[in-house]
Amino acid sequence: MHLELSGLTKSFGSLVANDHIDLVIEPGQIHCLLGENGAGKSTLMNMLYGLLQPDSGEIVIDGEKVAITSPRDAIGHGIGMVHQHFMLVPVFTVAENIMLGRENTHAGGVLDRKKAHALVTELSDRYGFAVDPDALVENIPVGVQQRVEIIKALTNDAKVLILDEPTAVLTPAEIDELIAVMRQLKDNGTSIVFITHKLKEVKAIADKITVIGRGKVVGSAEPSASEEELAELMVGRAVDLVVNKEPAQPGDPVLRVEGLTVIDERGFTAVDAVDLEVRAGEILAVAGVQGNGQTELAEALLGLTPIAAGTISLDGADLSHRSTRQRLDAGIGYVPEDRGHDGFVGSFSVAENLVLDLFRQAPFGTGLALRTDEIDRNAAARIEEFDIRTQGADLPVSSLSGGNQQKVVLARELSRPLKLLVASQPTRGVDVGSIEFLHSRIVEERDRGTAVLIVSTELDEIAALADRVAVMYRGKVVGVVPSDTPRDELGLMMAGASQREAEVEATENPTTLGTI
Amino acid sequence: ACGSKPAEDSASGGANKDFKACMVSDSGGFDDKSFNQTSYAGLQAAVKEKGLTEVKAESKSDNDYPTNMTAMVQAGCKIIISVGFKLEDATDKAAQANPDIKFAIVDSAPAKPIANVKPLGFNTAQSSFQAGYLAAAMSKSGKVGTFGGIKIPPVTIFMDGFAEGVRHYNKQKSKNVQVLGWDDAKQSGLFTGDFEDKAKGQNTAQNLITQGADIIFPVAGPAGLGGLQAAKASNGKVNAIWVDTDGCESAAEYCSVLITSVKKGMDVAVQDAITSVVDNKFDNSQFIGTLENGGTSLAPFHEFDSLVSAELKAELEQLKADIVSGKITIASKAQPKAS
Amino acid sequence: MSNDTATEPQQPPAPASPVREPGRGGLPGWAVQGLVSLSAIVLALVVGALLIIVGDDEVKTAIGYFGAAPLDTLSAAATAVGEAYKALAVGAVGGLNPIAESLTQATPLICGGLAVSLAFRTGLFNIGAQGQLIIGAILAGYVGFAWHLPPVLHLVLAVVAGLVGGAIWGGLVGLLKARTGAHEVIVTIMLNYVAIYLLQWLLTTSAFKRPGREDPISPIVDANAQYPQFGDTRLHVGFLLALVAAVFVWWLLNRSTIGFELRAVGANADASRTAGMSVGRAYIVAMLVAGALAGLAGTQQVLGTDLPLTDGVAATIGFDAITVALLGRGTPLGTVLAGLLFGALNAGGLQMQLQTQTPLTLTTVLQAVIVLFVAAPALVRSVFRFLPKERGTGAVLAKGWNG
Amino acid sequence: MSHTTTPETVRVPAPAAIEGPADRIRRLRVGGLMVVFALIGLGLAIFTGGGKATFQLTSGDLENNLLGVPAQPVALLLGALGLVAAVAYVLRRVPQRYAGWLAVVLGVCFIGAFLCWAAAGKTFPLANQFQGTLNFATPLILGALAGVLCERAGVINIAIEGQFLVGAFTAAVVASTTGSAAAALVAAALTGVLMAALLAVFSIKYLVNQVVLGVVLVVFASGITGYLFDQFLQEDAENLNTPAVLSAVKIPGLGDIPFIGPILFNQTVLVYLTYLAVAVVTFVLFQTRWGLRVRAVGEHPKAADTVGIKVKRVRYSAVLWAGVLAGLGGAFFTVGYAGSFSKEMTAGNGFIALAALIMGRWHPIGAMVAALFFGFATQLQSQLQIIQTPIPGELLLMAPYLATVIAVAGLVGRVRAPKADGEPYVTE
Ligand SMILES: Nc1ncnc2c1ncn2[C@@H]1O[C@H](COP(=O)(O)OP(=O)(O)OP(=O)(O)O)[C@@H](O)[C@H]1O
Ligand SMILES: Nc1ncnc2c1ncn2[C@@H]1O[C@H](COP(=O)(O)OP(=O)(O)OP(=O)(O)O)[C@@H](O)[C@H]1O
Ligand SMILES: [Mg+2]
Ligand SMILES: [Mg+2]
């Protein structure tokens, strides 16, 4: 199928998210879209999929102009999409999610669950996905959820498949599998639009690369272009892809975790007798596929999740049963993994969010009274310092782009003296330009003597920041390794291999990305 | 097809058109199938009889009493009737401020008599006593039942009289007819908790019926209608006695199950109070409706006329005479005190 | 994320310079909102007029011979509506006394509305203002008539008792929610019933009954415990307290650390917890203060307008307060304005029934329809096409049940 | 060792020896409450009078079919059993799976002991207890089901009370004017739909906050039915407000089952419709295409949209069908049971239905159980007022409401609404 977008324009209020974008997707082509956060990639794809209506411009399929006013139309035209934010109903089973919208029914609209079951089994066999049709989506790891999303898109026999940041939550091995599936689809003549922030992936699979910036097509590149070239095309300036950091000067242990066990709400063991130690002036990265207990580990450190066993101590003081507020006051800074959910209050202004955990302390709060002038002054300083791109400190944070929202959270946490910084996924979904800045700020904090614990699923990020790496699998720490451990080896440990097994396997079976 | 225009109504009565007879309801409203509604009927009757102008104000809440009272004063009312004890304070205040206007208040009395306020009280315990006696006599199961809306004296006075009447019957006839739903000695019994929920009233009555009661005496305004419905649904096994008005008139659909009603003659009392002002005969003496003056009475038996034996009818007459003469005294504390 | 999805679409991403409608003089946001609200009231009056016409006796008669003299029907209709609305207007704002009456009616509505608003801003749906008001009234009333104290002191104590009563009844809801997760909607509905039955019971006890009376009515509170009145009107100092309460709520929400916490919890409980706030404590504090505000409304009922305690002391204020808060979009100023509007409608409605025998239920319909239209500016705009577009439809209050 | 990560759930159930803190808190809370009730039950048993407690097993028949039990021994037995259950719960003496049953055992024991105490030396109409429970619960069930349908689709429905009122009103008027019960039910359902349409249009099309809307619609319904009552029904009650009430229809066979037969299967059409509604709503929600879509738009409308489901249309249909149920629930108050209409006659039942639906965790069966629980408590207090127990009547009147608070705080705990409940779906 030959797909042509011409002059697509979309604005939200005064913001032009897409400004006359032209794009051609050839049959059987893997077309990569690159661009900073908020460049307009998802907006463009959402218009193609009928979720958003363009203000102007047209979509032409096989030479014919078509109107796509709803996802229904898009599906009808053979377009499938895997969305950046999962479009799965968490309380439904995998089978229910997959049948939703095109249910097979018996007489009277009664669901034919058998057929749905068979379909899931068939597709997951065909593509080598092992997915249990009866599992509730909210109970399966994100990696598997991603597969469900892909199965959903595939069941429609899409001729054009849009994948919007599908790899953000996958392990290197899973990414490899996905790349294999994409190749298989391409060989069958399916065209694919692939959006990602990971330049390695782009180089591995793209037939064509289009870069979008501030709502416009700002250039295109060949897969042969170097990562640095691509990054520069995206950000508009040269970008340091490696963080320049001095070797760590670790001091005394600051955080000590012993036998920490967390049981989640459903009665499952999320963190299983974990021992960890983080020293002043070092960055310990906790690596692992999402859902292996890192989230709960970080939350337990902050007292957001009650612990079932074990101790947490900071500078020798036992914090295991302190409240979150006491831990923050004791000098822990926290950047939560899901910023929109836990990191800020979307309807609050930038200024208010910059004091979300400081508002009680002088100078912002004196007694019962809130000093709004001080809050504003603080906002001006932080916005300047962290280069937060906003049109005003009084605007709601929800109106900022993802990267800038993340800067707000980090700016807040770094604006007070810390002993320990816990940062989960500090740069998830953030573009390379912002990543560069955020990383350097974290290293700066380390060099100031703060103990830093990073939780990340991104091997790039781990490679860039970590002094030591702890790999978690099924709630346990399977090993603590130096930061220069090869990525394939880390990837295998994230899948449960011990360090020794990983070493052997990685040399025998290198992955695509590991070798680029 | 449309009719023709009626001729202008030729000044009907007209005699006292500028005499405004006014009434303020309590928060139950004029459609409460109870005392507001009956009192209003009295107002309408007086207006018709004397050719007056009526003004009425319903109160949605307690806050509205003083407002409505003031508005009535300003409207130039000659007499203002307030309905219910909750209006006492507002009435007294307005009366003292406006000695030229006459007032009457239903079911209440100022603590100290006020020259231009006529209290209208009703000793419905007397006729309820008769009703209790009648019910006891008519009961085949030997159990009669009663329930109220909320436990307040205007409600419990009926229940008291009813229970005492049953007891009197037992003593006279050496029977043991039981009253379910009210223990007048302990002043505790069965209440629905409001005056609105008809379904609840019906269920409550049903519970009495299950316990064996075959005559129901609901004292719960519209919710009490549910009790009549329960009787009706029993297909003749259970009958009822209504309160305030003659149920065969105010709730005609239930006439077939109504042995009689305990009438509280608010309509007549209100009408009299108004006409006394028109005729310049107003006095502030307390009116207490009794069996003697007809201010409370048993309604006709209507469809049960043939079922109530002549003997029983005679006994009821005798009861009346005995109560009037003081031979029978009624204990209920809810009876209006003569001031 | 999901917490904000309802509000987000209305927030333009970059309103550095206020977004203006092309070709239209930029009216400030509040003016636009005012215009829309005014139009909503006009629309509601039209609906009310239809009901008046349908229910009017003269019109009913005239319609009987519509064919013979159609103009009669029209003129009868016009007269009916005209007279009713004239009475409504006069009763609401036609002179000093009517205005005082409107303000008196508005007083408890404002406090009750604030109680609902404050809880809303904390993400709680307080259907329990009614019960909180009742308990407040019970305590304030009891202190007012059973104790005999010198001026000022007596009033202060009675008011404090009312605040405490309301706070207990509200705080209980917050406590249960914080400790056990019990849904506040269920608990407040149930506690409303408990409160009214409690009051009915207390009124049968000798501690509450007026001496010499068997009726369930308490004595009127001592003069020392009454809010001083303004001149001959029924308007009393409680009204000023209501305004003070509104200012207090504004300060609490916008200028205090507690309010910061409450708002944060209301807007995103997860992020608040992550930032070290105690969500449970916020619920308790919010419900305590909300309860106290409703209790204040209770004091205004028993200490302000010469009302003794009866089982009708709360009327439907606690429920009307919800509508008032919603109409006021959960802000203190909005709540005051909405309270005033409802107070005026109540006062005017009484006058309307008096002069034209229009049932009070019409006022109820009017109030509902006004709120309905104010809440749906898009609908109003589709009728009055000249209205400028509003920037955002204002704060969306309580979101879903998940808070 | 292969490259693929294992697909099954990452988490393993915690070993039984370790209890999650959340579970622990819940166990202590529920357990504490159970112990308190067990002790109250035992205390009542100790103070139970001598003689027999008689339970009447056939409604309306005081002579036959009585079950007499020695009050105190039975009460003591039940009290002790209840205490055992409570203690077993607190001490985790049964596998987690069966722990819930301990609460049920305790509940039954407590009520049994309580009844023995209350009915010692008296007769307690047991059959009537269940009959009354059903009567009180029927409109609540219909209302709560209406709420379930709406809210599963993502539209909060506080307006049940308003839908009740208009349903009750039209049913009364139509039954009076046409004399046809069927017509009355249809009319009630239709006006329920009309109110629901207001809810739907204003929430789905005009994006009005649904909590606001619900409250306002209740006020509106109360105003409009009140106004029409004042202006029309009041004046011409004979023709407009004397509906015939549905009569009970005994189901052959089922109606003859001892004890439960007369209670469950000698009822009006409306009650049968209610049973049917529970079954149908449960089935439709969880087993049909439409139900799947309704739940999808209530949980994650955007996900539904991306697979081609017309979110708004599904929401409209769910809200309107809910209107049918709520309208029928309203009809119960007039033609279904009590006859003529009077102002505000639904007396807050719509709000109780709302509470039932939340307490029932937005599940049709749960909502029904909650409604029955409330009906049971209400009926029990009414019956206890008649047989005269030492409990003051005033306290009894509050009891159903207090019981609900205790149940919600103690047993139900945190509930989770459909994720998108109350959130309008906006596309750009
Ligand atoms: N629904 C919306 N309303 C208003 N503005 C929006 C909306 N959706 C996106 N935007 C804005 O449009 C711009 C483009 O957003 P888009 O989601 O297309 O970016 P993106 O390129 O996909 O970014 P990312 O890499 O972070 O996913 C952003 O500035 C964003 O703030
Ligand atoms: N209504 C809106 N108004 C303004 N900006 C919006 C709106 N909706 C979304 N955005 C912004 O659009 C950008 C892209 O939206 P998107 O939903 O892709 O989130 P995101 O931040 O990119 O998420 P992630 O970090 O998980 O990739 C974000 O910066 C978000 O803040
Ligand atoms: Mg995107
Ligand atoms: Mg992104």
From TrEMBL, chain A:
Q: Where found in the cell?
A: Cell membrane
Q: Which UniProt keywords are listed?
A: ATP-binding, Cell membrane, Membrane, Nucleotide-binding, Repeat, Translocase, Transport
The record places domain ABC transporter at: 3-239, 255-499
Q: How does it sit in the membrane?
A: Peripheral membrane protein
MF terms per GO, please? ATP binding; ATP hydrolysis activity
User: Which cellular components does GO assign to this protein?
Assistant: plasma membrane
Q: Output the superkingdom of the source species.
A: Bacteria
Pfam families membership: ABC_tran
Listed SMART domains: AAA
What are the start and end residues of every segment in region (Disordered)? 497-516
Q: What's the protein here called? A: ABC transporter related protein
Q: Which organism is it from?
A: Kribbella flavida (strain DSM 17836 / JCM 10339 / NBRC 14399)
Automatic annotation (TrEMBL), chain C:
Q: What is a single cellular component term in the Gene Ontology annotation?
A: plasma membrane
Ordered alphabetically, the record's keywords are: Cell membrane, Membrane, Transmembrane, Transmembrane helix
On whether Membrane is a keyword of this UniProt record, the answer is: yes
Stretches that traverse the bilayer: 30-54, 124-147, 153-173, 185-203, 235-253, 282-303, 335-354, 360-380
Topology class, membrane:
Multi-pass membrane protein
GO MF terms listed in the record are:
transmembrane transporter activity
**Principal location:** membrane
Location comes to: Cell membrane
Stretches the record annotates as Disordered: 1-23
User: What is the protein name given in its UniProt record?
Assistant: Inner-membrane translocator
Q: Which organism is it from?
A: Kribbella flavida (strain DSM 17836 / JCM 10339 / NBRC 14399)
UniProtKB/TrEMBL annotation, chain D:
Pfam families according to UniProt: BPD_transp_2 (PF02653)
Q: Domain of life, per the record?
A: Bacteria
Where in or outside the cell?
Cell membrane
State the membrane topology: Multi-pass membrane protein
Q: Which GO terms describe its cellular component?
A: plasma membrane
Q: Where is the signal peptide?
A: none
For molecular function, the Gene Ontology terms on record are: transmembrane transporter activity
Question: Where is it mainly found?
Answer: membrane
| Keyword annotations from UniProtKB, A to Z | Cell membrane, Membrane, Transmembrane, Transmembrane helix
Residue ranges annotated as transmembrane are 30-51, 71-91, 98-120, 132-150, 155-175, 181-204, 211-229, 269-286, 318-339, 351-374, 395-415
Cross-referenced CDD domains:
TM_PBP1_transp_TpRbsC_like
Protein name in UniProt:
Inner-membrane translocator
Could you tell me which species this protein originates from? Answer: Kribbella flavida (strain DSM 17836 / JCM 10339 / NBRC 14399)
